[in-house]
């Protein structure tokens, strides 16, 4: 999967794999993940391996893009994730991101996600990108806007009754 690995000035990004299980366990149980994204019922490293193999890897195998682990060059710490997702109930490709609390507010989200969107466009021809977030997640809204997405409307997804703010960079939604 070397061809799907890339870097920015401060970061490495590579497809998430089962070797990231302990990191995924930590990230999915941070207070903001639980509050804004939801409880994925990942309580052990074994749960994390199952989550990676059942939720992350299948899309990557099918589409050749998906969830990437973000690693800081300076110390090789895994600090977050970002990805391009083909979500059920959402037309088009969705961009998502999450970082450990101690790495928020340092520009890593923008740096990694902007690079991922550039990769998606250049390699996969993905020009229309969407983003979803809950109303309370102001940080995500600001990052989506900085990435060039604009609020379109409130939506709900199948199997999730919570209203979500839908953003897009597509002129078709404007």
From TrEMBL:
Ranges where the N-acetyltransferase domain occurs: 11-174
Name this protein carries in UniProt: Protein N-acetyltransferase, RimJ/RimL family
Keyword entries, A-Z: Transferase
GO molecular function, one term: acyltransferase activity, transferring groups other than amino-acyl groups
SUPFAM superfamilies found in the cross-reference section: Acyl-CoA N-acyltransferases (Nat)
Coiled-coil stretches: none
Membrane-spanning ranges: none
Domain of life, source organism: Bacteria
Species assigned in the record: Dokdonia pacifica
UniProt cross-references to PROSITE patterns, sorted A to Z: GNAT
